[in-house]
Amino acid sequence: TLFRSNADQYKDQMEKLHIRMKQLKRQVEESEEEASRANNNRRRLQRELEDVTETAESMNREVTNLRSRLRRAPLQYTTRTIRQVIRLEGVSDEETEDHEGNAASNHQQSSQQSE
Questions:
Q1: Distance between CA atoms of 27 and 39, rounded to whole angstroms?
Q2: Closest CA to 70 of 81, 59, 60
Q3: Do residues 77 and 70 lie in contact, with contact meaning Cβ atoms separated by under 8 Å?
Q4: Model pTM score
């Protein structure tokens, strides 16, 4: 009876330890999965940071290049830019002059008619 009682106690302890060991194994697996997810997120964020850094460096080079071009010949680029805008709007230099001339003559005619 004493021997059986001790054996039952050992058996109970073994079952409890076995259950505890399974719990700890499950916790280790969950921790490993969480660490893996965290590492994946870290790698993804690192790639995004590298991409953003590369884009920022490229933009900074472009800004530096444009600034140096403006310092060398500011009026040339300003005039060229205005011409490009006019061309994009579909108005040639001649049309611009015609419109300005017509507007001035129309204004003179209307002021003469009102007198």
A1: 18
A2: 81
A3: yes
A4: 0.47
